[in-house]
Amino acid sequence: MRFLFKDISEVYTPLQRIGEAAMAVEEGIIRWIGAADDLPETYRNWPGISLGNRGILPGLIDCHTHLVWGGNRLDEYTRRARGESYEEILEAGGGIYNTVMATRAASEDQLFSLALERAHHFLQEGVTTLEVKSGYGLEPEAELKMLRVVKRLDQHFRQRFFPTLLAHVVPREWDRVDYLRMFCNELIPTVARENLATAVDVFCDRGAFSIAETRKIFEAALDSGLAIKAHAEQLTHSGATRLVAEMKGLSADHLEQTTADDWRALALHGTVGTILPGATVILRKAFPDLGAMRDAGVALAVATDHNPGSSHLYSLMLCLQLASALGGLSVEEALASGTATAGRALGRPELGNLKVASPADFVVVDGPDALSPFYHWGKNCIKQVYVGGDLAWRVG
Ligand code: NIG
Ligand code: FE
Known about the structure:
This protein is of the alpha/beta class. The chain has 2 domains: 2-59 and 353-394, Roll (Urease, subunit C, domain 1); 60-345, TIM Barrel (Alpha-Beta Barrel), CATH 3.20.20.140. Helices cover 37% and strands 24% of the residues. The protein has 15 helices and 15 strands. The protein has helices spanning 74-81, 86-91, 96-105, 108-124, 140-156, 176-193, 211-223, 240-246, 260-269, 277-282, 290-295, 316-325, 331-337, 340-345, 372-375, and strands spanning 2-12, 17-26, 29-35, 48-58, 60-62, 127-133, 160-167, 199-204, 227-232, 251-254, 272-275, 300-302, 362-365, 382-387, 390-394. An 8-stranded parallel β-sheet has the order 5-6-7-8-9-10-11-12. Strands 3-2-1-4-13-14-15 form a 7-stranded mixed β-sheet, with no helix packed on it. Strand 14 (382-387) and strand 15 form a beta hairpin. Helix 8 (240-246) runs parallel beside helix 9. The longest helix has 18 residues, at 176-193. The two termini are 26 Å apart. Fe (iii) ion is lined by residues 64, 66, 231, 305, 307.
């Protein structure tokens, strides 16, 4: 299957802007992209698809989500809005443990249909790739159930899904040492053998895993051939950012409590720093200084952290807008944070880029200005979404 996408008013690749562009796609892969006037003879006769003089952007990549969950925590949200803290609620056995009970109680089919509905919402806002974590099962069988849901999403829905095994908290009914041993010696090897995840993530913070425990889990993950990443420096400064960078991890995520030393470690080792504006704003934490991090050489990604407790939001575009308005990124930098750099954070640098040999995952906006979705807060400016060259969603 060969197509020539034409009548593109402008495209951000995202690192380069091309006006009056065309893009040749074969078997879902970009063969050529550039100014329409420079289109080589070979592609001129390919079946054409007019994009109606509209702008296009790479499909957005949400590189940190907890899309699979049961129940909801509206009650905790209203209590927090009255002044109770997220940490107090977690320490009292609510918070994550609340969602664990509801997720364990839900069947695989129920979790699948809940997650599918959420994925569909993300698709309509231009998200073509999502990372999805486990972590609300805790028990091995419930963790595997969550990861199977992600696998089913990948097989049956139009987006690309990257499942991650998350060491979230120690279940209350387990001894810590036993749980860690089971996680490292049984769960990680099983997940790797059954191809149920591409990475292992650890929530390294007060009330979750210590830095020594995190190191053990990372070692087990690397031994099983899985990539590593961390929920790092969210509530307290644990040192997980430096650990994951030194162990050549994909990304350190959250980063509200990071210091200049942490940024240097990320920059030195090429580990992506992923900012989660939903959690920062909803938990009323201070917004990280993204300008200073970028100046320190950190590659910055931005993700939703979609989850029922700290970031119950459904819009990656809103997170990119917040990263720009509150964190100090330019609009073009925010775009790269939700596309090319997010692809790097998944260990898939070909994703999130409209360039030769990359998959043709892109969104068509509803007018000639490709960046207009960044300007129109609260309005979905996406008209069509393509994944691998196929139309995955369109307005109406
Ligand atoms: O990324 N910080 C830890 N985990 C999730 C929140 C989980 C929850 O509250 O359900 C996060 O913010
Ligand atoms: Fe998270």
